[in-house]
Amino acid sequence: MGIHAVSVMLEALNRDAQHATIAKFIQNELDAEREKVALLHQQGSQQAELLREQGAQQFELLRQQQAAAGGSMHSRRPETLKIDISKYRGVEEDSLLRWFVELDDAIRARRIDDGDMQVAFAQSNLAGRAKTWALGLNLHDPFALGSLEVFESQLRQTFEPPRAEFRARTELLKLRQGKRDVHAYARHVRHLTSCISSNPVDEHTLVSVFMQGLADGPVKTHLFRLELDSLEQAISIAEQEDFSLRQACASSTSYRQPRRYDSGGP
Q1: CB-count burial class (<10 Å; 0-12, 13-18, 19+) for 188
Q2: Residue ranges of the Retrotransposon gag domain (predicted)?
């Protein structure tokens, strides 16, 4: 009921009826306004709840994206192990085959997959004649060493002695301790063994060669009483036995008999 309709109706009523009509009109207006306020409050609560849900969804989506990005970054950057290798100088004392084994292990540990980076890493571990050779080759033709396989092939053709593994194997089988101590003899055996990489000598043969090459004495006798399964086991026991013998000799040498003093009596 509008205000104009109320005014027309009030003109036909007495004073008490007018008061009642006005009070009813005001009450109806108040009730209508309260309903509007309640509706607005309900709509505001629904909007706030919707905003909270949208914010939570966006936060969860952002968290998932960050987790996925972190996982992909972890997969793109796997953990690497930095292994240092010896420098190859291009001299006869350096075993090229053993250096190739060290190089391949270091490349795998560092996870170097790019061919150019593999060649660059290999060249960074050259020294002396070998480094001079690589620099000269790169100056003449920057693309001469295009891959690690080409690099190793060129290096082998230039510096590897003819029949290098055959020579190392022959020297190993004929090796004798001679005047060297056990440590020096074991070190030479290890060196020759590391030079034979393409067709390694089996462990039992290495044990036999090492024991047979030892100088005759307590160390060799002690080893022949044992059943040994590996070269390192034989070397370890031989060095321990040699150390014990040296300690025993040092103790007996340092021992002095007590002096006898003449008391002058009968």
Answers
A1: middle
A2: 121-215
Q: Is the dihedral of CA 136, 138, 140, 144 positive or negative?
A: positive
Residue 86 falls within a domain, yes or no? no
Q: Give the other-Cβ count within 10 Å of 196's Cβ.
A: 20
Q: Which of 38, 71, 104 is the last residue of a domain?
A: 71
Total domain count, the chain: 3
Asked if the structure places residue 255 within a domain, the reply is no
Residue 126 — φ and ψ, nearest 5°?
-100, 155
| Amino acid at the residue 169 | R
**The model scores a pTM over 0.90:** no
168, 141: one domain: no
Predicted local distance difference test score (pLDDT) of residue 77: 60
In the listed set 115, 136, 159, which residue is the last one of a domain according to the structure? 159
Structure tokens at 118: 């593999």
Token code pair at residue 195: 């030079």
Specify which residues 88 forms β-bridges with: 126
Is 138 part of a structural domain of the chain? yes
Paired with 126 in beta bridges are 88
Q: At what angle do helices 182-194 and 164-174 cross, to 10 degrees?
A: 150
Q: Are residues 237 and 168 in the same domain?
A: yes
The parent domain of residue 106 ranges over: 96-159
pLDDT tens readout for residues 208-234: 999 999 999 999 999 999 999 999 999
Q: Which of 166, 159, 160, 223 is nearest to 192 (CA)?
A: 166
What are the φ/ψ torsions at residue 163 (nearest 5 degrees)? Answer: 55, 50
Q: DSSP per residue over 156-185, as a string?
A: HHHHPPTTHHHHHHHHHHH---TTS-HHHH
More confident residue, 22 or 121: 121
